[in-house]
């Protein structure tokens, strides 16, 4: 079995685990206190007190581990596209299980996201498994994507839950790019060098921010749109990182390059349409400034 095939197989397993984790954690977080980045210990304690959330967390850690191993065997762009492909199955199943039916326009938007993500992996080859780490370019990419994610995280808009999902996705994508850089350092200089690299700090900070943003998104609004937007943002940013930072080929021909650019545009357009459309639905928790926890206590105004 080639390294590429192994990596993509692991990416599929990671997709199943991660998408299942998101749905289970949405159910578990409903009874937990509001997620508040100012109180990280209390937030984690509250989430871990939910058995459903804990089960989802274990499943998510398993998926994350599979994702990391997949990144060491296949290009970042391909791995992320395969992981995101699970949206095609997750969205309709989660909609039924959670009782969150999607309107026709929403189904079209979700379908467009899935189609765009699938097109991103068409014609991509094996280069970039351990792309050369360009320190300055990588630093600028991580700083820029992190800054944009922070803007989404602090937006006070009626579709705030969706904005938090986008912020979480961008930060997870930022972390993926940093982790990919670590796999390259480990391959060239050993694991010890990777653990001492600044990319470990970048990955840890981005992952922490993504965790709080996405968990608040799951807690404040409907699960399906938050998951779709988060996954779309993660995938687009990760694939962009593969192209821009690590030299993954945009396409071996002009036609493939154009196809991949069109796929990026399709995902971006669908995500842009999805957030405000879903936020306008009657009874959406995201229309409220802050969603109250199940025990009736008011959520702090500044909670993520």
Overview of this protein structure:
It is a single chain. This protein is mainly alpha-helical and 304 residues long. The protein is 73% helix and 0% strand. The chain has twelve helices and no strands. It is globular and about 45 Å long. α1 runs antiparallel to α3, α5 (87-97) runs antiparallel to α11 (223-244) and α8 (160-189) runs parallel beside α11 (223-244).
For the sheet with most strands, the description reads: none
For the record, the count of structural domains works out to 1
Shape: globular
Give the N-to-C terminal Cα separation.
44 Å
Mean pLDDT: 78
Q: H/E element string? A: HHHHHHHHHHHH
Task: Work out the helix count.
Answer: 12
How many strand units?
0
Give the low-confidence spans.
Answer: 278-302
**What structural class do you assign from the helix and strand content?**
mainly alpha
Beta-strand residue fraction: under 5%
The helix content, as a percent range, equals over 70%
- Please tell me how large the radius of gyration is: 18 Å
Give the topology, please.
Layout: H1 3-29, H2 40-48, H3 51-71, H4 76-84, H5 87-97, H6 104-120, H7 135-154, H8 160-189, H9 191-196, H10 198-220, H11 223-244, H12 254-279
Helix pairs in contact: 1-3, 1-4, 4-6, 4-11, 5-11, 6-11, 6-12, 7-8, 8-10, 8-11, 10-11, 11-12
Summarize the structure.
By secondary structure, this protein is mainly α. It is 73% helix and 0% strand. The chain has twelve helices and no strands.
